[in-house]
Amino acid sequence: GQSLEQPSEVTAVEGAIVQINCTYQTSGFYGLSWYQQHDGGAPTFLSYNALDGLEETGRFSSFLSRSDSYGYLLLQELQMKDSASYFCAVRRSDSTLTFGKGTMLLVSP
Amino acid sequence: SAVISQKPSRDICQRGTSLTIQCQVDSQVTMMFWYRQQPGQSLTLIATANQGSEATYESGFVIDKFPISRPNLTFSTLTVSNMSPEDSSIYLCSALGWDNRDPQRNTIYFGEGSWLTVV
Q1: According to the model, what pLDDT value does residue B52 have?
Q2: Which of B21, B59, B82, B97 has CB atoms 3.0–4.6 Å from B2's, for a disulfide?
Q3: Is A45 within 8 Å of B48 when comparing Cβ atoms?
Q4: Mapped to the 3 state alphabet, what secondary structure does A11-43 carry?
Q5: What torsion, rounded to 10 degrees, do the Cα atoms B70, B34, A63, A22 define?
Q6: Average pLDDT for residues B16-24, to the nearest whole number?
């Protein structure tokens, strides 16, 4: 079977840094993806790690440790518009995705 | 990145009817998929849409309920058959496309979704 664990909710204030962790158990692991979904919207691709290490894209970074079956999404300089749900998803070798349950990020002034 | 268009974007459907959702990708892609997101839940893969052959369904999803077509590399349809209120969900088309931040890397993009409410 496949399972992913991520916190259900995280709160932070504007300007802060927040880290959303994701642990997974899966077969056929190819990489770890992160998606953002605002209320009423569709998922938007944020980041993807196929290899160990840190990937940086502007204010967002994502990290993967394959040996630990662990990754995280790091959001810096938080803005109100970052309030959304964030999903980690394991990408399998057939390019299908298995999603975690999502983390709701609430950013307050 | 691939631009993925879906229609309808929203619909209210009567119980027992069927609805077909269309998905168009702006560039040729190798892989297309259909996901479902029930209210307040995460995304679940329904099937991989294979060009010119039957779709590959995940456990819990069957062709009679969710027939899928993919006549060419850029277009696919998903039909939700004999709908019940439990089928009220967002249905999302996705495709494997190129990451415009790294042209040597591909990634999986989603359309805007089709929001179905069954009454």
Answers
A1: 87
A2: B97
A3: no
A4: EEECCCCEEEEEEEECCCEEEEEEEEECCCCCC
A5: -160
A6: 98
